[in-house]
Design brief:
Rossmann fold; 351 residues; alpha/beta; 7-stranded parallel beta sheet
């Protein structure tokens, strides 16, 4: 049973990936300082998998504490690195915080990878590396344009750091470029749990529908898209999670042929913000209270994926459609409200 270290494992995609790894026979340990996540997420993971996952409450920006994890676990065969700040708008307001946290944590982790000769490394990247592309769908060969936010730049720079590192080490790396993960695990035991005002569309939709947010804003209706709102490639978080398991299996099987390989993780379908709202209203039966506001700095106009490479090389296929994504997200939001001791717009604490 191979041991995989998952950083940011109490987070949204990290927790779903831990479930998928365990379900496919891996042993998992977690690193998460819980600054932007709850350790209680791992209780949901345990209910789904029957396995208790150990979490090291460590800030990866602290090298000595990070190093100690590897001293205690010298049999790690792979790392999946999620831990990072991820809110586009916040990164625009606090760029130095994003550069320091996202890049320092990555560098410290790679130092440990080098010191302990960890053979396999998977990086949580993003479609933000493409900026505002000239053509869509984007392939892995689409030339990156300037990022439109400091968050996007941290992903571009992170990829550059990993590419150069992989050339000088024995570690093989896979960079997974996510598009827009949404939804919750089909068990509705884990899901997205943003702290404070949600920065992503679907949590904003579900929190508005349930009354946690009185009214949501659609940022711009004058973009050059079908209906004027931004266009995105929404993908179910469980589909994203399974791609990480496949990436680890691919590397462990010795199939990786380059120092670092890049894969898009999207459905290949573009959906506008307003189309997503209408689809949610259909599956939930709730009429959403929203207004059209001005454009938001840092938002890409339109992007969706060509995912042929992930299908061909990793054997990855998406299972969930848009209505599945929105339905599970809505059920999760309802569960949060039913289970919460406090539901005050800041954070949900479970009984």
């Amino acid at each position: 049973m191979s041991k995989i270290l998952v950083t940011g494992g109490c987070g949204y995609i990290g927790s779903h990936t831990i479930v998928d790894l365990i379900s496919n026979g891996f042993e998992v340990i977690c690193v998460d300082n819980n600054v932007r996540s709850s350790p209680r997420v791992l209780e949901g993971v345990e209910k789904i998998t029957g396995k208790k996952v150990k979490n090291y409450k460590v800030d990866l920006c602290n090298y000595d504490d990070t190093f100690a994890i590897f001293q205690e676990n010298e049999d790690i065969e792979g790392i999946i690195h999620f831990a990072a700040y991820k809110a586009v708008g916040e990164s625009v307001e606090h760029p130095l915080m994003y550069f320091e946290n996202n890049l320092m944590s990555l560098i410290n982790l790679l130092k440990c990878v080098q010191e302990f000769d960890i053979p396999n490394f998977v990086f949580s990247s993003s479609c933000t590396v493409y900026g505002n592309p000239d053509e869509i769908p984007v392939t892995e060969q689409t030339p990156p344009k300037p990022a439109v936010s400091p968050y996007g730049y941290t992903k571009q720079m992170g990829e550059q750091i990993i590419n150069e590192f992989s050339k000088a080490s024995n570690t093989r790396c896979i960079l997974l470029r996510y598009f827009n993960p949404v939804g919750a695990h089909p068990s509705i035991l884990i899901g997205e749990m943003p702290i404070g005002s949600p920065a992503n569309l679907v949590p904003a939709i579900t929190q508005t529908a349930i009354g946690k947010i009185p009214q949501m804003t659609v940022f711009g209706d004058d973009y050059p898209t079908r209906d004027g709102s931004c266009l995105r490639d929404f993908i179910h978080v469980s589909d994203i999670a399974h791609a990480h398991t496949l990436a680890i299996q691919y590397m462990l099987a010795g199939k990786i042929t380059k120092n670092a390989e890049v894969y898009n993780l999207g459905t290949g379908n573009g959906v506008t913000v307003l189309e997503a709202i209408r689809a949610f209203e259909k599956v939930s039966g709730v009429k959403l209270n929203y207004v059209i506001g001005p454009r938001r700095h840092g938002d890409v106009i339109a992007i969706y994926a060509n995912n042929d490479l992930a299908k061909d090389k990793l054997g990855w296929v998406t299972i969930y459609g848009l209505e599945d994504m929105l339905s599970t997200a809505w059920k999760w939001e309802q569960k949060l409200k039913a289970d919460a001791k406090f539901y005050n717009g800041k954070f949900s604490e479970f009984n």
